[in-house]
Specification:
The chain has 103 residues and is mainly α. The chain contains 6 helices and no strands. It has a domain of 39 residues. The longest helix has 12 residues.
Length: 103
């Protein structure tokens, strides 16, 4: 499929006229008039409730005491033992460390 018009070069006057004729000949998609453009309003002004629902934050809510990511080297056996307990092993490791420091 060859591309007749390219954004990599300016259009010739003939190409511009052909494009404008194609636009004008489409009854399903007429060109917007200046008067119609002046009546346009922002999406948020027309549908404020829908806009607000789109804006809602997705994901997990912010924690009161967020955890910090660190890099820590541990013995492979320690990691394997915690991983063997299944999902949530990082939380159980955190709890064990809290107990170890008296929290």
């Amino acid at each position: 499929m060859s591309v007749k018009f390219s954004s990599k070069r300016p259009l010739t006057d003939e190409e511009e006229a052909e494009i404008q004729a194609m636009i004008a000949s489409d009854p399903q998609n007429p060109e917007v008039t200046e008067a119609e453009l002046k009546e346009f309003r922002p999406f948020r002004a027309v549908y404020p409730e829908l806009a607000a629902s789109i804006d809602r934050k997705l994901g997990r809510p912010k924690a009161e005491n967020p955890k910090k990511a660190i890099s820590l080297r541990l013995d492979a056996e320690v990691i394997e033992r915690f991983k063997a307990t299944g999902d949530g092993w990082q939380s159980r490791m955190n709890e064990a460390l809290r107990k170890a420091v008296g929290l």
